[in-house]
Every structure is written in C-alpha cells, then in structure tokens.
UniProtKB/TrEMBL annotation:
It comes from the Bacteria. Keywords: Flavoprotein, FMN, Oxidoreductase. PANTHER family: 2-NITROPROPANE DIOXYGENASE, 2-NITROPROPANE DIOXYGENASE-LIKE PROTEIN. InterPro entries: Aldolase_TIM (IPR013785), NMO (IPR004136). This is Probable nitronate monooxygenase. It comes from Lacticaseibacillus baoqingensis. One of its GO terms (molecular function) is oxidoreductase activity.
Length: 334
C-alpha cells in the first residue's frame, strides 16, 4: 500500500501546491474530490491584502468552512514556519486549524535559509502532533540535512523540490532528477517530488526516482476551477518551458512567462551585481503582490506569471478531475 495515500487518507498520492493567491475553497475541494489532497494557500480565496493577523485568520476560517461544505475528503491548510520562530499570523491560523478540525497541514518551512537551523519550529510541530494533525513539510531550501532534521522532528511526509518548480525557487540548483534520489535514499519517511510534474510520464519518473507521490502546482493552474485569470490560463496553454526566463530575486531565483514587469526583472539581473539585482527585483515584485496582480488579476504590465518547467505538457484548460486522472495514469497502483 502506498504510504502517502495511507497517511493522508486519499485515493491518489498527489498533493496540490499552495500557490499563494491561486487557491480557493472551490479549487481545493475539486482537488480533494478528484482523489488528491487539496491545500488552501496562504491567501486562499482573497483578492486584497490585509496586514491584520486576526483578519487573516478569519479569512482562512471562512475558506475552511467552505471547503468542508464542498467535500468530505481530506484537505490541508498552509502554515509558514521557520526553524526557530513562529509569526503571530501562523499562530492565529494554527488556532483556526485546530478549532475547525483540519486533518492535514502543509508546513512551508524556511529550512536553513537565514541560519544554520533546519527543520521547522518545534513548538508548532509538537502542537500539531498533539492534536493528531498530519504534517507535510516543504522547505524553501530542501537538502539532506533539512530532510533528516524534519524526519527527526516526526513529520509525516517530506517534499523534495527540484529547480524545475515555479514560484519561489531554491538556491540549490538541483533539478528534480538529482534531488529526488538524493533525499529519498537518506530518509525513511515518504518523500514527494515537486518540480516539473506535468503528465503521466513525469509521475512515473518520480516513482522511479524514489518518490512515493507528487506535489503539483503549475499543472493545476490552467484548470476550470482554479481562480487564476483566464488570460493566464491561456498563456500557460500556449507556452512551453522555452518561454520561461530565470532571474535573481530574494531569496534566490524566480522565473516567469513574458510580461512587461518580467522584462525589467531580467534587465536588472543582467546589468546589476547579484546582490543589488536581488534587492531591486524583490522591491519591484512587492513580495507576492506581483503574483496577485499578474496571475490572479491577469495584469501583464504590473505582474509576473511564475510557473514551472512542466508547462510544456499542458495543452488545454481542463477540469481538475481530468488533470488528476491524466497524471495518475502513471501511478503504479492506479
């Protein structure tokens, strides 16, 4: 029996990426109903920014309740945690997760980015384990040391992220084919592969490399239920990995399909020293605001469209169920 499906209580070993602004209750429920694990991202269901931790938590509570009305299958909520501290935002959302009986949490960890600390905040992990909540850990900087630290903390599942991914990319420039066997051979807990998953062939490749499941983001954006703008979905369908451009920003790298903002980001990377380029581009991107504008609102002048290299295998906008069914043709036990 597949350990990922057994641990999470799902049909297929497919976990949906949180994608910051690009999830909502409808989309997450669709993934879970299709047999995967849907995950509410940090800004799930939102179109505006709030700086209030209380409002952030209340927004997440509303999304959780909506998911629970749309599916009776397991789903997850994202918590952003560092190696040794937890923000007030995370604390507030954690309280909501416990109160609303969310069965699984994705811990998006900083994993050694700013210090020698690996793994996740031990207090948060202890609280989750005390309440019987399953944990999937995805570190911004996946590595052997980080995976081993996460395993020692008692996490249920680890995500090995290759340089092929979209969104905030790791500084370690190891592609999916390199990082997956590296980490799978070093730990006993089940490992998911993130980065470059776009069709049944890549799912089969992930299993051949030691994965026990896949972590999928970009492939699920051009779906009927995803809240991304229609022009973004069509741009992904009409593009391949050759249309993506890589540029430096904080903490390390991003990539984007063509937009006006992307061209300025590339120019900064080309003309400025690395450290200055990172600062300048981070300011232009405005944290995740550039994603909200580019991908949620479809504003190609002020935003960016960050996706992974697996988009080459996307040829149509489809329902979530159809995408999951296609990907899982490569699942050995399907």
């Amino acid at each position: 029996m597949n350990r990922v499906t057994s641990i999470l209580g799902i049909k297929y070993p497919l976990v949906q990426g949180p994608m910051s602004w690009l999830t909502d209750a409808k989309f997450v429920a669709a993934v879970s109903n299709a047999g995967g694990l849907g995950i509410l991202g940090p800004n799930a269901g939102q179109h505006t920014v709030t700086t209030s931790a209380d409002e952030t938590a209340q927004r997440m509570r509303e999304q959780i309740k909506q998911v629970q009305q749309l599916t009776d299958q397991p789903f997850a909520v994202t918590l952003i945690v560092a190696g040794g501290s937890t923000s007030i935002f995370t604390q507030k959302i954690l309280a909501v997760v416990i109160a609303e009986h969310v069965p699984v949490v994705l811990l998006n960890s900083l994993g050694g980015v700013d210090s020698a600390a690996y793994g996740v905040d031990p207090a948060t992990m202890a609280t989750l384990k005390a309440h019987g909540i399953k944990t999937v850990v995805r570190s911004l900087q996946p590595s052997l040391k980080d995976a081993q630290a996460v395993e020692a903390q008692g996490a249920d599942i680890y995500v090995a992220t290759g340089f092929d991914e979209g969104g905030t990319m790791p500084g370690g420039e190891l592609g999916a084919f390199a990082i997956m066997p590296l980490i799978a051979d070093a730990v006993q807990l089940p490992v998911l592969l993130a980065g470059g998953i776009g069709d049944a062939r890549t799912v089969q490749a992930a299993f051949a490399l030691g994965a026990e499941g896949v972590f999928v983001g970009s492939r699920l954006i051009p779906t009927v239920e995803n809240p991304a703008a229609d022009n973004v979905k069509q741009l992904i369908v009409d593009s391949t990995a050759e249309d993506l451009a890589l540029f430096r920003t904080q903490p390390d790298y991003y990539r984007s399909l063509p937009t006006k903002l992307r061209e300025q980001l590339i120019e900064n990377d080309r003309t400025l020293p690395a450290a200055q380029a990172k600062l300048a581009n981070a300011k232009l991107m405005g944290g995740t605001s550039g994603m909200r504008l580019g991908m949620l609102a479809g504003d190609f002048e002020h935003g960016y469209v960050s996706v992974g290299t697996g988009i080459s295998m996307v040829h149509a906008i489809q329902p979530v169920q159809a995408v999951v069914d296609e990907l899982m043709q490569g699942y050995p036990q399907a």
